[in-house]
Amino acid sequence: MISFSGVAVEKNGVGILRDIDLRITERRVGVIGRNGSGKSTFARLFNGIETPSRGKVEFEGAGTLKELRRHVGFVFQNPDNQIVYPLVSEDLEFGLKNLKLPKDEARRRIDEVLERFGLTHLRDRLTHQLSGGEKQMIALAGVLVMQPRMIVFDEPTTLLDLWNKRMLMKALNELEQSIVVVSHDLDLLQHFDRVLHFENGAIAGDGPPAQVIPLYIEKSQC
Ligand SMILES: Nc1ncnc2c1ncn2[C@@H]1O[C@H](COP(=O)(O)OP(=O)(O)OP(=O)(O)O)[C@@H](O)[C@H]1O
């Protein structure tokens, strides 16, 4: 469970997010809203990439940056922001080095994740030669090997074609972690447990997709 209590974010004197009071216990949560409504800023609070100007974010009662980073993984919209090493295998080992895992255990985790998502053939490839969809999956694999309890995705399907979008949606559905997905792709979120609708830096709608999404669409038609 992750909680936001009285959270506000301000930058250069400008209010970006305000009055965020939430407890998230659902397995699949979507985040929608117009461009500039504060979704990415909200998403980045989950694992401490962004810190609140006021209020606190806690994962099961622990709010230190170290705890948030340990429990919550973050998948960026553009995998180039996430993939740093020339070889896929090196990139996947990168985060695990910080955990100081024995080599065998690190290898086992990497093999398991690659195998599970049918990515084993990419293990020794150069990361800059991967397609956009392959990169997106390797970025997700890099987060999964860290075994976080929750994963936040910021617009994960924007760069993907229909095939890769389907592959990612299937992967999302099969994850045992709880997931939070920021997306303009309303189809992706229609079977989620809960959807948060942001408007001008605050939550304007919160509930099941069948309730929140139609109201959001209605507002866009005004
Ligand atoms: N450093 C900053 N200083 C001032 N304003 C900022 C800063 N960073 C972000 N903003 C503003 O905060 C608002 C929210 O940005 P955010 O990226 O969270 O929106 P978003 O809902 O994710 O948008 P999009 O759908 O376009 O990705 C935007 O108006 C943005 O211009």
Describe the protein's architecture and organization.
The chain has 222 residues and is α/β, with parallel strands linked by helices. It has one domain (2-220): P-loop containing nucleotide triphosphate hydrolases (Rossmann fold), CATH 3.40.50. 37% of the residues lie in helices and 27% in strands. It has a 6-stranded mixed β-sheet with strand order 5-6-7-3-8-9, sandwiched between helices. Strands 2-1-4 form a 3-stranded antiparallel β-sheet, covered by helices on one side. The longest helix is centred in the middle third of the chain and has 14 residues, at 103-116. It is globular, with a radius of gyration of 18 Å. It binds adenosine-5'-triphosphate. The site of adenosine-5'-triphosphate has 12 residues, from strand 2 and helix 1.
Distance between the termini: 36 Å
Number of domains: 1
Order of helices and strands: EEEHEHEHHHEHEHEEH
| Rg | 18 Å
Q: Which ligands does the model contain, each kind named once?
A: adenosine-5'-triphosphate
Class computed from helices, strands and strand pairing: alpha/beta
Categorize the overall geometry: globular
CATH topology: Rossmann fold
The CATH architecture classification is: 3-Layer(aba) Sandwich
- Kindly estimate the percentage of residues that lie in beta strands according to DSSP: 25-35%
What's the CATH class label? Alpha Beta
Major sheet, described briefly?
6 strands, mixed
What's the mean pLDDT score? 93
Stretches with pLDDT under 50, minimum 5 residues = none
- The strands making up the biggest β-sheet line up spatially as 5-6-7-3-8-9
Report the count of strand segments: 9
Number of H/I helices: 8
The CATH superfamily is known as P-loop containing nucleotide triphosphate hydrolases
Helix fraction bin: 25-40%
GO molecular function: ATP binding; ATP hydrolysis activity; ATPase-coupled transmembrane transporter activity
Domain ABC transporter: 2-219
Organism: Hoeflea phototrophica (strain DSM 17068 / NCIMB 14078 / DFL-43)
Family: Belongs to the ABC transporter superfamily.
